[in-house]
Every structure is written in C-alpha cells, then in structure tokens.
Amino acid sequence: MYPLLAWLNVWPVIDQRRLLAADREVLALLAMRGQHNQLAMAVKWAYRYLGRRRPSLRPRTEGERHALFDLAGDHVGIENLLAEARIGARRYEADGTTLRFRYAADARVDSLDRMLGVVNDVRSIPSPEEAARRWSPEFRSWLDSGGWNVPWSTMPLEARAEYRHEAERAITSSPRYLSGDLDLGSFTPSDAEAVLGELLARAMHSHVATIRGCVNLLAVIPPYSRPDLVREFTEATGRPAGPIEAVVDLLTYDPERSDDPCLAPVLPVGEMLVPMSSLIVPSSLPRNLTALLQRDPRTFGAAGRQLGALGIAKMTETLRRLAAAEIATGIKVTRANGSQAGDLDVVTYDPRQQLMAVFEVMWRIGPDGSKEIAQMEAIAKKKRAQVVRLRDEIVRGVALPQWPESWAQAREARIRWFVVTPDLLPLEAVADGVTIRSHRMLAYTLKRDASVADLVQLMDDPPYPPDALAQTSWRRLRYGKYAVEFDVLPP
Question: What is the pTM of this model?
C-alpha cells in the first residue's frame, strides 16, 4: 500500500513540475486543484480494494498505476456528469453503448460562476516579487544547496520556522467559518488550526522536495507512528496533548467514518500514519475541516449557527458600500395572534426611492465538485420556497415585519426578494419572483456608492462574460464498454 500511495502522492506534482518549467504557474495551480478529487478517488479505491488484501507478490507496473489514476479521473468526471443531469444542467441520451450528456443550462450563468472561481484562484497566487519576499535569503540558499532533499526530522529549526510561517499565512488568509474558541467537545477550532498549520508546513516541504525531484521517501511522504506524530505536533504547537490527539484522529482517514480522503488526508498504513502532501497542499484546510465536522450533527449544532451569523455579517459588510441606504438584520415577522412567521436576515432600504431589497442568507461551506453543487442547489431552492411562503403571508397582510422605528414609510416601499449563497450561482436563478445569486458575485461587482436600485439591477442582470466564454466544445472518454460524450465550457 505504501509504495502505491507514494506514487499517487508524487504523480500530480510531476505534471505541475512540467507546467512550472514552462512558466505556466496559473495552469499549474489549476491542474493541481483539478486533480485533487481524482487523487482522492484513487486513494479511496486503494483502501477499498487493496487495504485488507494480502500484498501481491507481483509488483504493480507503472502502466497499471497510470491506468488507476486515469480511471479515477474518468470516474470523477462521470459522477459530475450524472449529478449535473439530475439537476437539469444536462440532457442524458443513450444510443447503444454511446452515452451523451448534452449541456442544457444557461451557459452565461455557468461561465460567470467559473470566471469568479478562477479569479479567486488567480488572486491567491503571489506575484514573483511577493513570493520572493515570503522566504528569507538564508532559507532559499539552504534550499538550493540541497535542503529540499532533507527529511523534516533532520531539518534546521530555522527552515522549519519558515515553513510554519508560510503555512500560518496560508491558513489565516483562507476563508474561516468558525470562531477559534468554539467548544467542539474534545478540541476547539483554534486547536484544529494549530494542527492544520503544522500539517501544512510539513506538506509544503514534501511538495517542494517532490517538485525539485527528490526520491527520498522520508522527505517526500514520511510515515509516522501515531504516538510520535501526536508528540511532535504537541511540541510544535505548544498545546495540550488531548486536543491534539483528538484532531489527529479526526484528520486520519477512516472509510467507515468519511469516504473522502480530501477531508482526512492523514492516511493509516499498517501501524503508521502518512500525511499525504498532494491532498493537503491544494486544499482549503479550514473549509475541509468544517466539512468534516458537518458530518457529525452532534458536534456541529453550534458551528452551524456560527456559519449563519457569519453569512449575515459578510452580506451586511458588502451592502455598506451602498449610498443613501439603511441596513437592518434579523427583522422579526409576526402574525396577528403573536406567533412568529419568520425573520428577514438582511434588509437594505432606500427611503428616497422607496425601494427595499430583502436577502435570505444561505451560508454553507463552498461546494467541491458537481455532486456538492447539486446538493447546494437543492438547499437553495428549499430556501427560496421558504421565502416565497413568507413573502406571500406579508403580501396578504397575514404577517407583518417589525421594521425599525426609523423606517417610518417602510410599509409603502416596493420590495424585491433574494436568496444569497456564499459562492454558488444556481443554474435556475429565478423562480416565483425570487432570485438566487452569490455573495461572491456581489463582492466582486457591487460598486461603492451604488444605490439600492443599482443593487437590484445587478442582481437581476449580472455582468456576464463575453459570449466566447459561454461556447461549449465536445469531449469524449471511454468508461469500460461505454463511449461517453459531453460538451463543456472553457476551463
């Protein structure tokens, strides 16, 4: 198992190395992230089909390993096509053993969503000057003189400190969903982030070693005993062993608990634990930690409430760009008998134009792949149905919003209704007079000193990319006996 995991850990980086050698840094980043789920699928299969088997006497060939990785990529692609077909984004057709998934969604919305995602990725790439400033001249000299070939265990303390500093910067600059002191039972998010920082620092060195061509497995994919890993993380973070042990256990891959190695990238191999750098480096580690916690509702109740509050705060902050607009949050809506019909998460009101925009904030961690996008679209549609029911009660006069006292004329205002996700633009954006858009779109496109009318116009008609970016092209792959054809937007 260990040799196969080592190969899987190295192979995506070889492709990245090729792109970096051609000065194609952006494509290298996108390729690494694009292969993330493909790698996780290959790892999952390794555990499912090889984990409990006796070692084969015949060594695996390079061709077999490539075939495994390629098949995992095709499998992820098929899963995504099926998920898109289920939500109506594709039409499914079959002709014998030829399967065709024809794109059927609004390509303008999809291309805008993809463009915003690419902008997010590209903006995370430092300029060459900034990247050079992140590492000291002494560290770069040590690396160039062969430090990339040194295992973490024998690395100078000064070099470890440089990796840890960069890992901390990466984690603190990632979207964070939970407050550090939230009680999650045996640990807090602050404890978890400390472990993630140490895990990322070590993975960064393994990644650098692989890119430089290192073949020393103790540097590229080092194994640890569980007691040693807990002890080293405890010493490095300065935190009690109990919480560190609990976080290490949470991040250790267990197919019985979590079927996604992206979320739990510490892989058990016999009595050893192997942190897999190619699953760690491309990840948004705080996002994946939150996703892992979400799978256990017993520990995630308070965390879920924090996520909702975070979304309202983010939306309120963005709306403060508006001129001559008042903002309120958590407005109660009550019926004549005193019962509560619901509440309005965020409302912005322009008393001069007598125009109001009401936002139901649906805040979740960002989806990873078409399957999670489909799940989020389904949740967003349920949210829209709730908004429609509440809106209709207000329109009929059955329920009344408790507007702030200073909004004397609010009952006369024209109201527009919206649902806001963090970063998902649903393909069916408008239904029943309620529009679903993403906060990410607003954050990038809402101009300072815009009016509420400008905001509503932006929600109704986003700035779509040029038509050329909404043109699809056909691709084909073989999956067993099937030929699978599908058209895609530009990457």
Answer: 0.83
